[in-house]
Amino acid sequence: MKKVISCMICALLLVGCMAGCGSTGGKSGSGNGIKIMMSLSQGDDFRNTIVEQAKKTAQEKGATLDVYDEDGVYMGQYTKQITLQHGYGDGMELSCERSVAAVSRLFYNLPISGYAAINMGAIPALNDAVGGVQVTVLDDVIYPEYDMDLHQGDEVTLTGHQAYWYVRGRNENVFNSSSLRLERQKQFLTTFIAQAKNKAVTNPSIAVDLYNTISKYMVTDIDITKFTYLASEALGYNFDISHLYTMQGETLMGDKYEEFYVDDDALYQLIIDVFYEPVESEDIK
User: Fold this and answer.
1) Rounded CA gap, 110 and 241, in Å?
2) Residue 116: helix, strand or coil by DSSP?
3) pLDDT score of 230
4) d(Cα 221, Cα 92) in Å, to the nearest integer?
5) DSSP label at 144?
6) What is the pLDDT of residue 79?
7) Among 215, 253, 257, 284, whose CB has the most other CB atoms within 10 angstroms?
8) DSSP state of 247
9) pTM attached to this predicted model
10) What are phi and psi of 59, to 5 degrees?
């Protein structure tokens, strides 16, 4: 049975930035933290592929990047951690466009229809916009210097400040602690979406409100009209943590930093399973 890219899916790239995204982030810096390939299907499922990328002590290997010198002169393609691609740009639209190209290559030339790069500073505002995300704490998140003291098993409604550190923080003294953080990020994302959907029942303009809330933290080619349409479509989808797919691979200790190596065979199969659909031979023109 042959397969082709599903025409019922719109693939978008969401880049989480520590700096360099939106009016509060300046115009420099690489994308860091969460990267999400979001597929919006017209079926019953709201399918997503989350890609945890490099950040400080977690370097990723194996992505082909377009590299430019400090004057913007193209130097060629090199294999580097994929988050660096955002830094080879202006920190704004150009960086996003180059990130889209790099992720598309990594995902076997998957067409990507749009992007949104969001500064992590948006997390508190998003959290508070839905009344605070309610979580059962997955692992200890203790940072006395940031007034954070959450323990595994605690049931809390996160304040904006707590939400920020809940999805950002990790213990850099623990090997592969980024995996623990990824689980918290997935939990936060799914719970946030569920609460936003519930809010939409009594507040149909919630999508517009959220878009306006994060606009100053965001660089995107998705205008508010498109965003509102996508949000209205998403209301009809089933969505929970089982619909999140994480890239498989191996984390090893390099000379200085942890290095994540993508399992190419597993990634290829993931792309086929999520973004392609079977067709009869006679349907292929």
Assistant:
1) 23
2) strand
3) 86
4) 11
5) G
6) 80
7) 215
8) P
9) 0.81
10) -95, 140
- Segment 29-48 shows an average pLDDT of 50
195, containing H or E segment: helix 177-202
What is each CA distance from 155 to 130, 163, 243, in whole angstroms? 17, 13, 23
CB neighbours of residue 111 within 10 Å: 12
Q: Which two tokens stand for residue 43?
A: 């079926």
Q: Are 16 and 9 in contact (CB under 8 A)?
A: no
Radius of gyration of the chain (CA): 19
pLDDT recorded at residue 157? 97
Burial class (CB in 10 A: 0-12, 13-18, 19+), 43: middle
> Residue 31, SS3?
coil
Is 240 within 8 Å of 189 (Cβ atoms)? no
* Residues 47-73: tens digit of each pLDDT: 555 554 433 333 455 678 888 888 788
Report the amino acid identity of residue 201: V
Are 95 and 14 in contact by the 8 Å Cβ rule? The answer is no
Q: What percentage of residues in the chain have a pLDDT greater than 90?
A: 35
- Please state, in angstroms and rounded to a whole number, the distance separating the CA atoms of residues 61 and 70: 23
Q: Which of 270, 202, 207 has its CA nearest to residue 47? A: 270
Q: What is the rounded distance in angstroms from the CA atom of residue 156 to the CA atom of residue 52?
A: 25
Per-residue tokens: 14? 């969401």
151-208 residue pLDDT tens: 999 999 999 999 999 998 887 777 767 788 888 988 999 999 999 999 998 898 999 9
Instruction: Return the C-alpha torsion angle 105, 106, 107, 111, nearest 10.
Output: -30
Q: Retrieve residue 187's tokens.
A: 């939990």
Q: How far is CA 150 from CA 33, 109, 177, 188, in A?
A: 21, 41, 16, 14
